[in-house]
Write a structure and sequence with these properties.
Distance between the termini: 59 Å
Order of helices and strands: HHHEEEHHEHH
Helix content: 40-55%
Shape: extended
Number of strands: 4
Largest sheet: 2 strands, antiparallel
Number of helices: 7
């Protein structure tokens, strides 16, 4: 998405003064992935501030936390992710990265949902939810996806009810 690409350009910008960086070449895949992780970390630092502080102090989440039922953990790149038993398959040679946790409301969350919805030819709520959960776990995702799809002009035209002609009053 454009937000991540622009963040990648800003991370490379000259006022940061990184040695041996050619600012004329296009962005690499690694730079885009690092920028995406930086955006996710920043959003999580704002939205899940109390949860992250509690985890860093006690190495566990409180039961009052919004993401307690997801068994979250913070990975090596400092991203809050959902816990799952599938992560243990990495010892068998299968690399599965658990989805990063995102809040329900937020511009980045809306952009992610809308991009997935649009790239997959305006699929419905359930399919968009399944595709989103491959890389992001949005808390309250169905409500957020429903709001985004309701704003989609192509879907509104496709699923619009035909207008009904009103009968004229009798003379």
């Amino acid at each position: 998405h454009q937000l991540v690409r622009r963040a990648a350009w800003l991370r490379r910008f000259p006022w940061i003064k990184k040695p041996n960086v050619d600012y004329t070449v296009p962005l690499s895949i690694q730079e885009i992935e690092e920028a995406e992780l930086a955006v996710i970390r920043r959003i999580q630092a704002i939205e899940f501030k109390a949860e992250i502080e509690c985890y860093e102090k006690q190495n566990l989440f409180t039961k009052k936390s919004r993401c307690y039922k997801l068994a979250p953990f913070i990975d090596e790149s400092s991203v809050l992710r959902i816990g799952s038993r599938l992560g243990r398959l990495s010892s068998f040679g299968v690399a599965l990265t658990p989805p990063a946790i995102l809040p329900q409301a937020g511009h980045f969350t809306e952009l992610v949902i809308f991009e997935i919805h649009q790239k997959n030819y305006h699929v419905g709520i359930e399919h968009t939810l399944a595709l989103t959960r491959r890389s992001y776990w949005i808390i309250g995702a169905k409500v957020a996806i429903r709001k985004i799809i309701a704003k989609c002009n192509a879907c509104r035209f496709q699923y619009a009810q035909p207008s009904r002609q009103r009968m004229a009053p009798l003379p």
